[in-house]
Amino acid sequence: MFAPNQLTIGIFLPLTFYKGQMDVLKGQADLVEKIDQSNFASVWVRDVPLFDPNFGDAGQVFDPFVYLAYLAARTKNVSLVTGSAIFTLRHPIDLAKAASSIDVLSGGRLVLGIASGDRPVEFPAYGLDADHREVRFRETVEYFRELIHQHSPAIQSSLGHLKGVELLPKPAAGGIPLIVTGSSRQSLDWIAEHSDGWLTYPQATANASGPQMLAQKIQAWREKIPGGMFKPHMTNEWIDLVEDVNYPRTPLRGGFVLRTGRAGLIQLLEEWRAAGVNHAALGIQFSSRPPAEVIQELAEEVLPHFPTHAGPNPLFTRW
Question: What pTM did the predictor assign?
Answer without folding.
Answer: 0.96
